[in-house]
Specification:
- The complex is a heterodimer.
- Chain A is built from 13 helices and four strands.
- Chain A is mostly helical.
- In chain A, helix 4 packs parallel to helix 7 and helix 4 runs antiparallel to helix 10.
- The chains are: A mainly alpha, B alpha/beta.
- Chains A and B meet through helix 8 and helix 9 of A and helix 2, helix 3 and helix 6 of B.
Chain lengths: 336, 259
Amino acid sequence: MEKIFQKLSLSSASLVFVLLIGIFITLYTAAKPAIDEFGFDFVTNPDWNKEVSLNPTSLTDTVVDMEEDSLDGEIIDEDDMEIADEDDDAILDEDEDDMMLDDEDDAVTKTIYGGLVPIIGTLLTTLIALAFALPIAMGIAVFLAEIAPKNIANVVGIAIELLAAIPSIIFGMWGLYYFAPIISDLFGGYQVSLLTAGLVLGVMVLPFMAAITRDSMNTTPNVLKESAYALGATKFEVIKDIIFPFSKVGIIGSIILALGRALGETMAVAFLIGSIFVLPQKITDPTISIPVAMANNFGEASGLGESALFYLALILFIISFAIISIAKFYFLKKAN
Amino acid sequence: MPVLNIKKFSFTYPGVDHPSLKNINLPIKKNKITALIGPSGCGKSTLLRSMNRIHDLYPGNKYEGKIEFTDENKQISDILDIKKENEFIELRQKIGMIFQKPTPFPMSIFDNVAYGLKIAGVKNKTELADRVEVALKGSALWKEVHDRLNKSAMGLSGGQQQRLCIARAVAVKPEVLLFDEPTSALDPISTGAIEELIVELKKDVSIAIVTHNMQQASRISDYTAFMYLGDLVEYDKTENIFLNPKEKKTEDYITGRFG
């Protein structure tokens, strides 16, 4: 019995590593063609799904085929028009929404994929979300753990847990219909943008951060707080000098969880980020993130395109892994 | 001359009908050690925690009577009248407290001892360093930690941590120190060191100590108060309490018949 129990718990624990390595291998094999084709340039190349002429006489690249640009098609159309105007050799057949390339009989072209835009989009939305959520979450946690009377703290605590339970698509819809117009009124620019996506993402990760931070603040022993008060400390000093340092590990844990959620969030961001492969110049510009790029393009993707999406997935996997490892090893080491 | 004079003092916890302390009259004499003994639940910690109003961190307590505090300028004030936060801070700087378990703050040894000084507004670095050194020497800890003042206080042993807490309380130069079973979490050798230290400290401060350990009370205290079920049964010089107690209850407790 003892043996069986040990074996069972050991195998459950090793399952984690098997899964982690298995997922990595799957992603890597599926991304292999794209990795071979584009190498590390994939990370720095801002062009996605772009036809490049291999014909040495042809001067420039030709046409971008954007698939998901119904929301903000005008920008891309402008860009493409410019390219088309400059390029006399290419013969273009333009539609209102879609642009198709009619190749000349002898023109040899290939499609290139670069991941810079979604990578930047993912990192920036996450950054905005954390910058927005962190101070508010700390404020909520301090209020709930230290300042509010018990009954109020309970009610607000339940509200926060309910907020955490709202499915992300509801956040997406709410963000698109109510939040996005407000943001564009306040900050100008487009309704769907990096900023809108980042802020709604911030609202989504807020309850996690607040709840975990509150819980770890509540683990500060009463006697430790009392001994600070007994030295003549004020409430603010006790919070700043005793409770925050004591619950540092929990706070970092909450940030890590929020990071993980923000990096991988798909549905709400898909509603709000604009979903176009264009590098944002301003914080109010629309762009795309890695999960959204995958969700939007996976259905139609094949061959190299599909492999490039797997490459993106692999990059997302590595980014999350790297950020969380850094946070875990660097900050937690410092905290201890 | 008592530094603290507790008069007709009653205390009731929130949500409880009966008072936990009933009509207590007890002086805490200047530069003496007063021990509070009695079985668990007799209210000795409750009484101690009333003397610096640490109870007030949790709302809803009821006080009756007076606790008169005579400060170094012979000014007499009633501790129970205090309502404002800055008065509480002032009170707690004058009446320090050491707890049952060592409570080092999550910071370096130096910062721990300097903490009370820093929040009291001492900014001068050399003054801070001097007063930390004096406090650590006064707590017999300087030799052991002087070469690792910047290391975390969490790395010290339990006995060292408790002496650190005493140094931290002493650094702000209080007039009274309240000890709430300061050695109950420590081994006999650390306990001995703390007891020596407490006796040493009474040159400068007046001390009230709650203890479960009757030998400890008889070893270090000048006066002893025996409490039972919220009443102060007997208060006298320590040798009288232990050698010829007047009350039957005190005698029973001292001789180990209950408690």
